[in-house]
């Protein structure tokens, strides 16, 4: 009940003209970056960070959240019309969505995706409304050991599922932590790894690394494939009665599965959409239609990835543990605005949190309104070749990074880390854990020091306290499960009876 | 092709391992422990060791694992763009932002992408003007646009 009253207060903040406009800009930009090739929500938020420096945190975070869930809608359009998923979470949509487009039913696929996304987004935001406050309340009892374990879990969870290799993911996370040690140690005042350069005393800024890895690195990796593709025609976006009958249960199932998967740290929308697709195929009376244009294969994963996007905000807002790469950047933005992510956010900045949650209901409605009549317009954007887009992106990266500290050295860092980001993409090293490592590094170090001081130097404090122990165990499982699963699948299967050896 | 992929991947992993090694050695310049808690050098030592071990494990897995031969995109275009960025950042301190940013876009449009001159000039001009308008006039950021702004 209290949550609903707080939500009411959130609506009164979110519905002010300025915040409403930021919500619209956010979802529109999210939709746009989901459609446009070579730029995702992480890059879009990274590029906009310098523009929001010094502005109202509530309005900025409403915009960032809008970009985050709006991109899920936009990614669908490319999946359906050109079979190129705009986001990794829309990979499953492209299987049946593109087949529907080939059969002349692109409009129906986009229509059901938009309606499913709206329903799932709303259900999931309701889940966020009800689940996040008690979770944050419970987490208020957290001390330094629990915070330390939470940071470990967040880093490990994101590292374990970000790329194809757990090893590379964890190494990237450690590299981020390592970069966080550059500059003055806040506890002892000693300057570390500054290479004799005064401008490194403040360390490496989160914006610099984020813009470099997700802006410059992404451009350097994508500019070689800057070609246009044929786009399918969009007609009749409103689904038929039969389409709706076949889609309503997949939408509901996708909403619940997506939310639950999204809440788990590190899993995110991509895994949610995979699970939803497999589940729909298993439950379908016509599994043979999957892969050939089954509308359930669009409705389920699309609902699921949108529900997961809101679900991933539960651990981010309530615990300060991001559920995905993009929420890791939003977490960094919170810190940039001088806020402390974690359970205290709900008590110390409740106006901001509830305004962001309320704006998600509004944003989902805006996206539905935008997507049904404007699907054709966004489809036309697919015809803009990437070669016209990426030079301005580079220009924005340089100017944006310079503007946040008036530092030419930061421009050099952007180029250097941009080259590293390009190599990371080329060799399949995930970038998100590195950013998260840099963001959470100071909290990791201070909570470790405080915990060990409390325990007189014994690390048993992380096992003696039940919540910290449970979080640590979860972190171990995040590493162990993919490794064991990989070992089991790579083991040669014994030849069954009747098979030739 | 497989050899090339392995070389790049391997070189990258070895680069991270060397960075880890540097941090491990450098950490000993700082006190490691004070009272009951770690001091300034402890976590850099831990991070450096971890990064070294993890990156070395990645490199070893590339040597002994069954690497799938993967086709990578050609490097030329990315290197040209990266080179242009280096030149632009090097010139920012002398001639401000307007010319280098406009020049960067023109170079990519005309030389790297071979796009038509007039359209390229219009797009590059509009983007540069918009950036100046947004950052200098709307956000009041002291962006050095030309030489005399420094």
UniProtKB/TrEMBL annotation, chain A:
UniProt cross-references to PANTHER family, sorted A to Z: TRICARBOXYLIC TRANSPORT PROTEIN
Annotated transmembrane regions: 20-49, 61-85, 106-132, 138-159, 166-184, 196-220, 256-279, 312-339, 351-369, 389-408, 429-447, 467-488
InterPro entries in UniProt: DUF112_TM (IPR002823)
Domain DUF112: 20-436
Short name of one Pfam family: TctA
Protein name: Putative tricarboxylic transport membrane protein
Keyword Membrane part of the UniProt annotation: yes
Organism encoding this protein: Ancylobacter aquaticus
Record bears the keyword rRNA-binding: no
Keywords: Membrane, Transmembrane, Transmembrane helix
UniProtKB/TrEMBL annotation, chain B:
Keyword field contains Aminoacyl-tRNA synthetase: no
InterPro entries cross-referenced by the UniProt entry: DUF1468 (IPR009936)
rRNA-binding as UniProt keyword: no
Membrane-spanning ranges: 12-33, 45-67, 79-112, 118-139
Keywords annotated in UniProt: Membrane, Transmembrane, Transmembrane helix
Domain (DUF1468): residue spans on this chain: 13-144
Coiled-coil residue spans: none
Pfam families: TctB (PF07331)
Record-given protein name: Tripartite tricarboxylate transporter TctB family protein
Organism: Ancylobacter aquaticus
């Amino acid at each position: 009940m209290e949550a609903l009253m707080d939500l009411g207060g959130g609506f009164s903040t979110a519905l002010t003209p300025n915040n409403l406009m930021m919500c619209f800009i956010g979802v529109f930009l999210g939709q746009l970056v989901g459609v446009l090739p070579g730029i995702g929500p992480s890059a879009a938020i990274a590029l906009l960070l310098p523009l929001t420096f010094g502005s109202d945190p509530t309005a900025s975070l409403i915009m960032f959240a809008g970009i985050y869930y709006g991109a899920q809608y936009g990614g669908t359009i490319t999946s359906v019309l050109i079979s190129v998923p705009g986001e990794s979470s829309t990979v499953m949509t492209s299987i049946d969505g593109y087949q529907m487009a080939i059969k002349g039913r692109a409009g129906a696929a986009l229509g059901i995706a938009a309606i499913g996304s709206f329903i799932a987004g709303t259900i999931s935001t309701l889940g966020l409304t009800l689940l996040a406050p008690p979770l944050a309340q419970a987490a208020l009892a957290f001390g330094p050991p629990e915070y330390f374990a939470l940071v470990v879990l967040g880093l490990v969870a994101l590292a374990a599922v970000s790329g194809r290799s757990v090893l590379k993911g964890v190494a990237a996370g450690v590299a981020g932590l390592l970069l966080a040690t550059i500059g003055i140690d806040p506890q002892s005042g000693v300057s570390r790894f500054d290479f004799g350069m005064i401008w490194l005393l403040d360390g490496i800024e989160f914006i610099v690394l984020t813009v470099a890895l997700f802006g410059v690195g992404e451009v350097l990796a994508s500019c070689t494939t800057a070609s246009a593709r044929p786009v399918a025609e969009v007609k009749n976006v409103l689904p038929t009665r039969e389409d709706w009958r076949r889609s309503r249960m997949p939408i509901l199932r996708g909403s619940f599965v997506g939310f639950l998967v999204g809440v788990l740290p590190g899993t995110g929308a991509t895994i949610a959409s995979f699970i939803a697709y497999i589940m729909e195929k298993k439950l379908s009376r016509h599994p043979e239609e999957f892969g050939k244009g089954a509308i359930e294969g669009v409705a389920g994963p699309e609902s699921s990835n949108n529900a997961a996007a809101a679900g991933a905000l539960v651990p981010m807002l309530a615990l300060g543990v991001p559920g995905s790469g993009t929420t890791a950047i939003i977490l960094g933005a919170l810190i940039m605005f001088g806020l402390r992510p974690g359970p205290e956010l709900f008590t110390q900045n409740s106006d901001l949190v509830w305004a962001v949650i309320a704006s998600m209901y509004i944003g989902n409605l805006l996206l539905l309104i935008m997507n049904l009549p404007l699907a054709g317009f966004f489809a036309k954007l697919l015809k803009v070749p990437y070669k016209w887009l990426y030079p301005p992106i580079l220009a924005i990266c340089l100017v944006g990074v310079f503007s946040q500290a008036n530092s030419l050295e930061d421009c050099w860092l952007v180029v250097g880390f941009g080259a590293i980001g390009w190599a990371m993409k080329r060799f399949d090293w995930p970038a998100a854990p590195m950013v998260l490592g840099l963001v959470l590094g100071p909290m990791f170090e201070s909570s470790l020091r405080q915990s060990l001081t409390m325990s007189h130097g014994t690390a048993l404090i992380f096992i003696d306290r039940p919540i910290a122990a449970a979080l640590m165990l979860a972190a171990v499982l995040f590493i162990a499960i993919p490794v064991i699963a990989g070992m089991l699948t790579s083991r040669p299967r014994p030849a069954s009876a009747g098979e030739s050896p | 092709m497989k050899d090339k992929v392995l070389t790049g991947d391997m070189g990258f992993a070895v680069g991270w391992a060397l960075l880890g090694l540097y941090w491990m050695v450098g950490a000993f310049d700082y006190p490691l422990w004070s009272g009951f808690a770690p001091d300034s050098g402890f976590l850099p030592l831990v991070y450096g060791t971890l990064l070294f071990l993890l990156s070395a494990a990645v490199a070893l897995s590339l040597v002994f694992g069954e690497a799938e031969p993967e086709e990578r995109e050609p490097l030329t275009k990315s290197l040209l763009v990266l080179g242009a960025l280096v030149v632009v950042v090097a010139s920012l301190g002398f001639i401000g932002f307007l010319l280098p940013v406009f020049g960067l876009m023109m170079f990519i449009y005309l030389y790297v992408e071979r796009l038509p001159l007039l359209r390229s000039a219009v797009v590059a001009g509009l983007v540069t003007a918009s950036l100046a308008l947004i950052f200098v006039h709307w956000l009041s950021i002291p962006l050095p646009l030309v030489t005399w702004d420094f």
